[in-house]
């Protein structure tokens, strides 16, 4: 597992931990988000869930759907809806490329992480292909074998 960089300027709010288990990640994009004020405040408190979220391209615009940002508890009557559609800010060429790739069989757009970068909310979306059940088992087996090999190497180094 890769260690977090010390000089990483991102303040991570939410990660989609199951994404790498359920999907094969083919390409990753960083997109800005169009948010309301109470959504930003709720995110700054570290509250969000990406588990059921996905991105979709609709009439040349990218949208983040089904991502849960809970209502800001100090908000008033103008609080946001927790699972509303949120517009993604991407370049036109990126949207066109994502649209053509996501139409291929088995491909989807999923959010990997939600974070702040220089005070702006960003989401990392991935073009992904769903794994079959046997692929998931194979990946788990490879990870377990790698862990056992690392453990054996450490044990051998300790003994001399």
From TrEMBL:
Keyword RNA-binding: yes
Pfam families: SmpB
Broad class of the protein's primary localization: cytoplasm
SUPFAM superfamilies recorded: Small protein B (SmpB)
CDD domains: SmpB
InterPro entries: SmpB, SsrA-bd_prot, SsrA-bd_prot_CS
Keyword Ubl conjugation set for record: no
Compartments in which it is found: Cytoplasm
Keyword set, alphabetical order: Cytoplasm, RNA-binding
Role summary: Required for rescue of stalled ribosomes mediated by trans-translation. Binds to transfer-messenger RNA (tmRNA), required for stable association of tmRNA with ribosomes. tmRNA and SmpB together mimic tRNA shape, replacing the anticodon stem-loop with SmpB. tmRNA is encoded by the ssrA gene; the 2 termini fold to resemble tRNA(Ala) and it encodes a 'tag peptide', a short internal open reading frame. During trans-translation Ala-aminoacylated tmRNA acts like a tRNA, entering the A-site of stalled ribosomes, displacing the stalled mRNA.
Family note: Belongs to the SmpB family.
UniProt-recorded name of the protein: SsrA-binding protein
The species this protein was found in: Promicromonospora kroppenstedtii
